[in-house]
Amino acid sequence: MSLKYTAARIPGKDLGQNFLVNGEVVHRILEAAQIQSYESVLEIGPGEGALTGELLERAGKLMAVEIDEALFNSLERKFANFQNLRLIREDILQISFSELARWASSPKLVVVANLPYYITSQVLLKLLDNRMFIDRAILMVQREVGRRITAAPGNKNYGMLSITVQLRTEPCILFDIPPECFRPKPKVHSSLLRLAFHDSPSVAIKNEKIFYSTVKAAFSMRRKMLKNSLRSLGGLTVNDLHTVGAKTGIDLCRRAETLSLEEFASLSNTIATFISLKTATAT
Ligand code: SAM
Fold this sequence. Notes:
- By secondary structure, this protein is an alpha/beta fold.
- The chain is built from eleven helices and nine strands.
- It has two domains: about 180 residues, 3-Layer(aba) Sandwich (Rossmann fold); about 80 residues, rRNA adenine dimethylase, C-terminal domain (Helicase, Ruva Protein, domain 3).
- Helix 8 packs across helix 11 and helix 10 crosses helix 11.
- The longest helix has 22 residues.
- S-adenosylmethionine binds next to strand 1 and strand 3.
C-alpha cells in the first residue's frame, strides 16, 4: 500500500529525508506506540506527515519538530485545523524538553520518530538526558544501530551504545523494515525500536562519571584484557586493579564485551571508592 505525497520536492539527502511510503508500516508503528487519548506525543521530523495525521487522531496533544522550512510550511497548511497540534520549526537537538513538557497534557511524553539517521546518536543521547520527561520512545533506526542498542554481553555488537541505552531504558527491536518502504530508498535496512524508560537506572551506580569512564576505557581496547585496558583510567596501578578484581570477584583477564551491566556497575563502584580514596589522601 502506498501513500500519496503532498510536497512536490526532491527529498534532501543531507537531512536524512527518507519518507515512509508504506501504509502497512505506518499502521504497525502506530500499533506499537499504543498511544492513549490522554497522552502527549513528540514527533521528531514529521516530514511529509506520514505518521503525523494518525498521531493527531490518537494523541491528547502532539508536538512535531521539523527543521526543514518547506516541509514545515506544507505541514502547517495540511494540519491547520488541528487544535491539539503544536508544530515547531527547530532543530530537535536544540529543543528544550522542559518547555515541551509545559505544553504537554500528560506528565510524560511518548516520542515517535522515523529518525533522520545522520543524527541518531545525538538524538538518543538527548532523549536519555531528558529521560525524566519521557515514558517511552518508538524509533525507526538503522538496523545495525538497533542491533547495537539491544545487544547482550558476548555479542559482537555489544558495546558503549548498548550499555548507555540499557542503563536507562529497556530496549526492544519490534521488527525490521526494508529500504523499499521509503522514498527515496535508503542504502540501509531499518528497524523499529521501542525504548521503555526506567525511573531509576537498571543497575545501582555510585558515580555516573566514573561508570562511563570505566566502560569507555574497557571498550577503547576491545580486544585487550580488562587489567590492561583499565590502566588508562587515571591513577590506577596494577596493584589497585588487582584489589578491584578481588573485591568484585571479576576476573580482569576477561574482555569488556563479556561483562554484563551489573558487572560494569560493580567494577565502577569499586573503582569509584579507589579514586575517591586517592583524591582524599592527595588533598
Ligand atoms: N516522519 C516522516 C516519515 O516517516 O516519512 C519523515 C522522516 S525522515 C526519515 C526525517 C525527517 O526529519 C525529515 O523530515 C527531516 O527534514 C527531519 N529532520 C532532519 N534533521 C532534523 C533535525 N535536526 N531536527 C528536526 N527534524 C529534522
